[in-house]
Amino acid sequence: MRKSALSASLLLISAVVFAQGQQWRKYFFPGDEFSISLPSNPNPHNDNGDAHINVYSVHMGTTVFTLRVITRAMDCETGLAEMWDHADKNANPNEPVIKGTLKEVSLASMRGLEYETDLGNGERSLHRFHCADSRKFYIFNAGFRGSKRPPEVMKIINSFQLVNPAQQ
Fold this sequence. Notes:
The chain is α+β, with helices and mostly antiparallel strands.
């Protein structure tokens, strides 16, 4: 009994130390017109060398969070509608949409949609698409284990804000 209480105490202390070790801070990316709070420095890079798609990613244990910013002329409403249809039809058999997760969402006054997909082996992926205007599109993605989203994922997403680069 004493040994299991000691093990439980050490596990709890380790979890607290890990949580406190995360240095959450707000990051500003004026070129992509947003700020966001993250638990560690993101790894910014272009998506496969495409200068119109900037990727910001962080790892949190088994959870990986990625934000893609697409900066090219597009019709946002049409893009959102096409993504909705694609998810609603469950068009990707390798990553099926989990029933009941497709919904409209809003973030920082941007319309959008979200859904979760089943990656197999107890892993899921959250997909969120937000349209800022005809030249700026934000795609959030988080891969995680289990059926519940880690609270850190929503903390990151809810911290997202559009910023005016002239004010920075």
